[in-house]
Amino acid sequence: MDRFMLNIDNEENINTQDIQPPTATKELRNRVCLDIARFIYENGILFNVVRSRSWINMLRSVGSYGRGLQLPRMYELRTWMLNEEVKTTSKMVDDVKKTWIETEVIIMSDGWSDIRHRSIINFLVNNLYGIVFLKSVDASSFVNNAQLLFEMLDEVVEEVGHTLIVHVVTDNANAYKTAERMLMEKRHHLYWTPCATHCIDLMLERLRHLPQHKSTILKAKFFSKFIYNHSWVLSLMRKFTDKEIIRPAVTRFATIYLTLQRFKELRQPLEAIFASE
Fold it and tell me: Is 93 a member of any domain?
């Protein structure tokens, strides 16, 4: 218990007879340091965090090894440890890739816009054993050009291996539909389907413009903006409902309908707000 509870900032409180560093081999230290390095890499922590006192205190509290652990240095984090983690990650990807010939795969493209308003397309390969990120392409100059999209998709098929691919999933935009038609004409064993999520998103967008829906959505927007733009009203709403009205979702169209659903759930407490003195 002392090993975990003692304040090691105060060196005088440490009884060296109670805390005996275990006899550690080089292999044991390497395994421990690799676990530490994985924590740093996975959480995007800067390497110079190892210079802070709190970092040293945390590692000294690791009772399984004791104070005898030689802490990893910055040089180690960005050299052999990083190389070992890259090897581990590459092996995981390679293990999945080895299953492609057994199961065949699906190519999935995910289009999005970054903060610089570039049209980025992420390509992923999916099978029963997992999803592998392939690459990202800046398609800003040809995102609406069906011929160039076809050439890009055909290049991805060749990169993965045309004999391994049976299915391609993309957005439902007109340019993609034309490009995929051209791809299926060239490669008869492939078939294409639009992304189901994107199709549902487009349906929600169209429903939003129906007269009976449009009026309701405009009122809900006005009401929610009024609440969130006045701090004391927002505080009152949270006191009565103990929940948030706006429910963020992956797409703005889904957010609209989730917010309407929340209005329905909170109807009685919202009415109580306006009946309150």
Answer: no
